[in-house]
Amino acid sequence: MGIPAETDILVIGGGPAGSSAATELARRGYRVMLVDKARHPRKVVGESILPHAWRYFDLLGATELVAREGFVKKAGGVVAWDGKLSEISFRDFEFDRPGLHVERAALDHLLLNNARAAGVQVFEGVMAESFVEDRGEGAQVWLLDIESKDRRRVTCRFFIDASGQASFVGRQLGAIRLDPDFRFITLWGYFTGSRYVGSGGIVRPFEYLIHHPPMTFVCSLGNWGWAWHIPLRKNTSVGILVPFDDYKKRADAARSREQYFLDTCMANPHLGALSDLFDRRRGGALCGRARRMGDRCFVAPTRECIHVPKSVRGAVGRAGPALPHRGAADRGSIPACSRCRKGFFRFYSGIGKAADVVRRVDDHAFG
After folding, report:
1. Are 155 and 19 part of one and the same domain?
2. Which of 42, 72, 228, 278 has its CA 20 to 30 A from that of 284?
3. Domain span at 144
4. With contact defined as beta carbons under 8 Å apart, do 244 and 223 qualify?
5. Tens digits of residue pLDDT in 220-277
6. How far apart are CA 209 and CA 269, in angstroms?
7. What spatial distance separates the first Cα and last Cα of the chain, rounded to whole Å?
8. Is the pLDDT of residue 333 over 70?
9. Does 13 lie in the same domain as 109?
10. Measuring CA to CA, how many Å separate 41 from each of 95, 107, 108?
């Protein structure tokens, strides 16, 4: 397997959180090992990045790498919720650098290679199976090479769980707590030929992206579901999040899960207005019930990933009404149902507590 038997710090997970933590610790002089069960580049969603991300790219020494990648620059966000349209423009907050729409496979691979350049030992295709807490000689973590099936025990002073929805530590400790209010299914796919929403709620052809930066577009679906529409460099990421009970009621009438996804997108007046000449390229699905902290730039309470088979290419679409102009809508806070507000308040409160723990570890262990 080639994995050393001991290290100062073991990082589990090679997404942005894992690679960023590993990079910073390696630069502080620690021996750092990172393992990821996937091999990069790998498919993952979470393509909308806020301008705040640049400060972390600066910290990691990755700013030039990200800039050279040429990701789509985004101007802000437009939300259509329960018949009301809201817009947030980054220029109103005096950001000097734009938000981004990124292909996560490319961004995550870039950050992982940046960690390698900082001296991190990176092992892909390796999964963390179990751990034993520190009993005086350091924590012990059992690793599995997925291809060769070889196992190796690694002793470390500290290990960091950046496994995201896999929740390596939480699962072993039996600490996973499901939230019945957020039992949902999320389906997504990538399309070409889709128009996009720009500043002011103006709908533009995809070819205008280079001259007119897009907004991340989000709209409500049904009772408390929602959808996203994120233009990327070559195609557009479109996804829906719907209550699992609603999905079960309607999925039987569709010929497949993919057909249910396409029907739901086209039945929404906003997505319908953007989706003339949809050409499906590839897709995936994400099912979730639990509130979970992970390494996603896009935060959603998720539980497990399910891959949807490749679809047949073809033109799918219908004409739809244009989006209302921003001038007809109020700006400011985004409306949301009370159930969503309650759940996400608990979710972000958990993130805040975790951040406090990380700061205390850094102050006392690595100061």
Report:
1. yes
2. 72
3. 6-47+103-176
4. no
5. 998 789 999 999 999 999 999 998 888 888 887 877 888 889 889 888 988 888 875 4
6. 22
7. 33
8. no
9. yes
10. 30, 9, 7
